[in-house]
Each structure stands twice: as structure tokens, then as C-alpha cells.
Specification:
This protein has seven helices and 13 strands. With about 300 residues, it is an alpha/beta fold.
Length: about 300
């Protein structure tokens, strides 16, 4: 089947891995009118002009802001658009989509093995300060506004060091995304702290990104956003959970009052959970499951077209 990638005709499309692995007969074309499949990462790219009932119209994205629908299909003009996104269960089905780390983490032994002296309880926040909403049934499931408040208010109180773009002038100390090795730079930043903010973009089942994994690999205790499925992998009593509509100052007071023994026990419980996981295998299995769901959909759709 010939496909056209709406986001970038020459770019890496959601069908790239299936095409490269020869798991399904796919051929990229550079004109939409030549395609049997129109594929995009952004649902907004499907308009009455680009969505055709004579083609298979497909959205596949693991980014929560690019497709907000909770349903498997939407109608655009006279065409049906099929959705694989964060919210309808067609992409994430476990906590390991971003768990691709090979080495284990050394448990915390004593105060000498901390990143920085324990009396330094400043929190690191390495993320974008851009604001946005993700509305579902009248409820904003985005954490963008909450982490914006966390960063700006924490900065005002002198308790949170902010890194990233999109923040008010004078708030951010730098932007790790502007360097060639973003992950290494972020890890270097986090290793200068004992506590870190690991808010996700959204609170949704199995949306567990590198934010949490990188915080743990930097041996910081993460402050994590509300999640109903993270407890399948980590002890929620070990994470510092930041609930909806929570105030920042009570959380900072908890950090101030936390003795080293509690900090050590919390962090080591999370480290032990990471170390006993076959992380790399789970990472590839998670990616394979997502690819298999897409493959099965294409096979079923192709069979229907033939019949």
C-alpha cells in the first residue's frame, strides 16, 4: 500500500519501522493523490481537503497534545480518520515505553553518597514552561499549568531551580533541549540536586515518560504527577506525589521536614524497583506491542479492502 506522510513527506513517519522491517507491504509516495494511506502525527492535519473516503486516513502519535480524542475514529468531511493516540489505549499499555536504560542504579548508602549535601533541598525542574490545556469532558487533564505554577512560584520562593524554555524572563537557568546531547545535559543538571520535579504533560494511564526514568537514574527523589497506573511499577508511598490542585508550600514543608533516613528509604525503594526490572527488554516489548497493534489494524483494513 502506498502512503503519504502529511506532517513531512520526506520525514520519518509512524509507518517507518513497519516499512523498514518489511512487516507490511508499504511504499512511500510524495504526492497525496497517489496514496492509499494518508498518515499523520497531528489530527489537525486532516481536513476535508486531505481526508478522503477513498483512502485510509490514520493518525498515530505518542504526544498528548497532537491528538486529544478518546475515541478510535473521528469523521472529517465525508471521511473516517482512525486514531492511535495517548488517550484511546492504542499506543501505551504499560509503563515501559521510555525505559530504555541499560545499567542499574547504585543504591543510596549514606549521606556521603548523595548528589549534594542533604541540607540543600532545592528542587530541580527541567521541563518546558509553556502553558496549555487538554480538555476531556470539561476537565483539563494537562499538567502544563500546574508545572508552570510549580516552577514560577517555587522560583519566587527560592526553592525551585528551573531549566527549560517557555518560562518568564529571569526564571529559567538554561535550556537542555538546545544542546546536542539533551539527555546527557539533563542528567548532568539533575545530578546537582537531591529532589526533582518529574511532572508528565498529562495524567493518563500508562503515560510514563523519560521524565520519571531520568530523575531516578540521576539518583534524585522525584516529585511526580498524579497517575493511576504508576503503582503497577513503583510504590506510590516512595514517590512524592503532587495531587491535583495541591499547594506548593505544604510540599516544600514536607521536604524540609524529611529526615535523611526517610529520603534514603524512599529513593532506595524506587531504585530497587528499577534494578529488578528487565528494563531494556520491557522497553522493546512495549514498542513492539504498539507496532503490533498498528500492524494488525493495517492487515485487517487491507483484508477488508480486498474482500
Amino acid at each position: 500500500m502506498r502512503y503519504f506522510y502529511l506532517d513531512d513527506p520526506a520525514g520519518r513517519s509512524p509507518l517507518h519501522e513497519l516499512e523498514q522491517a518489511n512487516r507490511f507491504p508499504l511504499e512511500r509516495v510524495m504526492r497525496l493523490d497517489q496514496a492509499d494511506i494518508a498518515v499523520a502525527r497531528r489530527a489537525a492535519l486532516f481536513t476535508p481537503e486531505t481526508a478522503s473516503p477513498r483512502r485510509l486516513n490514520l493518525v498515530w502519535t505518542h504526544e498528548p497534545y497532537l491528538s486529544l480524542e478518546m475515541v478510535p475514529t473521528i469523521t472529517v468531511g465525508e471521511a473516517t480518520v482512525h486514531l492511535f493516540n495517548v488517550y484511546n489505549g492504542n499506543v501505551y499499555t504499560d509503563n515501559f515505553f521510555y525505559s530504555n536504560y541499560r545499567t542499574g542504579i547504585e543504591p543510596l548508602r549514606d549521606e556521603a553518597s548523595l548528589n549534594v549535601p542533604f541540607d540543600r533541598k532545592t528542587v530541580a525542574t527541567v521541563m518546558s514552561g509553556k502553558r496549555g490545556t487538554l480538555m476531556h469532558d470539561g476537565v483539563d487533564v494537562s499538567f502544563a499549568d500546574r508545572r508552570k505554577h510549580f516552577g514560577t512560584e517555587g522560583h519566587r520562593l527560592g526553592r525551585v531551580d528551573v531549566y527549560g524554555g517557555g518560562w518568564p524572563e529571569g526564571v529559567s537557568r538554561g535550556n537542555s533541549r538546545q544542546v546536542a546531547h539533551r539527555t546527557n545535559d539533563k542528567m548532568d543538571i539533575l545530578r546537582g540536586y537531591n529532589f526533582s520535579c518529574a511532572f508528565e504533560n498529562t495524567s493518563w494511564d500508562y503515560y510514563t515518560t523519560e521524565k520519571l526514568w531520568e530523575s531516578l537514574y540521576a539518583r534524585t527523589l522525584p516529585i511526580y504527577s498524579k497517575s493511576s497506573t504508576i503503582i503497577q511499577t513503583f510504590d506510590p508511598d516512595a514517590l512524592l506525589m503532587y495531587a491535583d490542585n495541591a499547594e506548593l508550600e505544604p510540599l516544600l514543608a514536607r521536604i524540609d521536614a524529611m529526615p535523611f533516613s526517610e529520603y534514603r528509604d524512599r529513593l532506595n525503594a524506587l531504585i530497587e524497583a528499577v534494578n529488578r526490572l528487565p528494563r531494556r527488554e520491557l522497553f522493546f516489548l512495549s514498542r513492539a506491542r504498539a507496532q503490533d497493534r498498528l500492524l494488525q489494524f493495517l492487515q485487517a483494513t487491507s483484508n477488508m479492502a480486498v474482500s
